[in-house]
């Protein structure tokens, strides 16, 4: 309540506002950012969304997408200027400034009031106003609640609604993860009231594969999946040559890790992608196995209990070998 009052006070008069979210934004990152942007624009603020990197083309349909500034060396000066000038800086769907690349140091030095809205575990305390709820299913759920608690639920229209819905539907795994509470469904009911087209949103996100992406999926499942039965673990490792061969675009590897987890008996899944800058890793688990802890302990990462990510600067094969060598340490959780 204190945080809502502080935010209400801050937004009393039109402000220059900058919104950002994590590297390689997913539907919750971009949907919560554009949903919030749509609301703040309606309230008469000046709003600029800046993403630290590009994002999948299956998110391009969101209202406000055309006005997003994607950070790159060529937009660096403009991004710096916007961050310097911002009176309010919203940080959505990430828990520490290391998750937003170069933007992190600019925001750290910025004079604007920083507002965090996030649901990741163990958030850093870099913001002046914090809405951190680690049991929320999605940041979009929290954005809905913030707008509602500011007394403005009536301003949530179909465009804002579809952005928020996209965030919630993806982060709940289409309403199947344990985070899918009554509260989530109540919010969805309210969003449906605005006239959102859920068929359109699902088709845009899940049924918009390019032909090469689908063939890449087929190749990976047939040839690249390793199952370590002894530890109820499955993983996929994709080389940079394979990414090139299938002309892989941002977002093309999204969801791959879930196939590894969908094998009967598998409790722990990992996806290793050999990116130019480092090996990017996704972890997923079922039940009590905390991949947040695993990613933090061994791969400089973090996230949620059952969905986390990390990074490795070792070659792909060494990274995978290291991962496999760690499994016996977790035998108790993985096997019993
Ligand atoms: P994904 O595997 O889909 O990229 O990410 C799963 C979850 O872990 C997301 O909530 C994402 O924000 C978080 N995550 C992914 N990579 C990292 C990372 O390198 N560091 C941290 N702290 N979180 C990550
Ligand atoms: Mn999220």
TrEMBL record:
Signal peptide residues are none
Q: Where is the DDH domain?
A: 16-168
Pfam families in UniProt: DHH (PF01368), DHHA1 (PF02272)
Q: Which InterPro entries match?
A: DDH_dom, DHH_sf, DHHA1_dom, Oligoribo/pAp-PDE_c-di-AMP_PDE
PANTHER family documented for this protein: BIFUNCTIONAL OLIGORIBONUCLEASE AND PAP PHOSPHATASE NRNA
What is this protein's record name? Exopolyphosphatase
SUPFAM superfamilies cross-referenced by the UniProt entry: DHH phosphoesterases
Query: DHHA1 domain location, by residue?
Result: 245-318
Q: Which GO terms describe its molecular function?
A: nucleic acid binding
């Amino acid at each position: 309540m204190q945080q809502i009052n502080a935010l209400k006070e801050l937004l009393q008069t039109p402000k220059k506002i900058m919104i950002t979210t994590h590297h390689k934004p997913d539907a919750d990152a971009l949907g919560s950012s554009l949903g919030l942007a749509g609301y703040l624009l309606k309230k008469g603020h000046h709003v600029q969304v800046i993403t630290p990197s590009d994002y999948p083309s299956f998110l391009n349909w969101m209202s406000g997408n055309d006005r997003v500034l994607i950070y790159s060396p060529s937009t660096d000066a403009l991004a710096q200027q916007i961050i310097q000038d911002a009176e309010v800086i919203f940080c959505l769907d990430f828990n520490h400034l290391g998750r937003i690349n170069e933007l992190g140091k600019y925001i750290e030095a910025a004079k604007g009031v920083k507002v965090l809205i996030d649901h990741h575990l163990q958030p850093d305390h870099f913001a002046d106003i914090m809405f951190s709820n680690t049991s929320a299913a999605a940041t979009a759920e929290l954005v809905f609640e913030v707008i509602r608690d500011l007394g403005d639920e009536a301003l949530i229209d179909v465009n804002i609604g579809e952005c928020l819905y996209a965030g919630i539907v993806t982060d709940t795994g289409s309403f199947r993860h344990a985070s899918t509470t009554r509260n989530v469904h109540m919010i969805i009911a309210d969003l449906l009231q605005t006239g959102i087209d859920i068929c359109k949103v699902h088709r845009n996100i899940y049924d918009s594969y390019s032909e090469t992406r689908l063939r890449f999926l087929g190749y990976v499942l047939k040839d690249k999946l390793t199952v370590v039965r002894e530890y109820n673990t499955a993983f996929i490792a994709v080389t940079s040559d394979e990414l090139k061969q299938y002309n892989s675009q941002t977002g093309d590897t999204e969801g791959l890790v879930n196939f590894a987890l969908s094998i009967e008996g598998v409790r722990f899944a990992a996806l290793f992608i050999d990116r130019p800058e480092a090996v990017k890793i996704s972890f997923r688990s079922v039940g009590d196995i905390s991949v947040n802890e695993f990613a933090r302990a061994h791969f400089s990462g973090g996230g949620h209990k059952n969905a986390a990510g990390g990074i490795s600067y070792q070659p792909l094969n060494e990274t995978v070998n290291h991962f496999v060598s760690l499994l016996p340490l977790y035998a108790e959780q993985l096997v019993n």
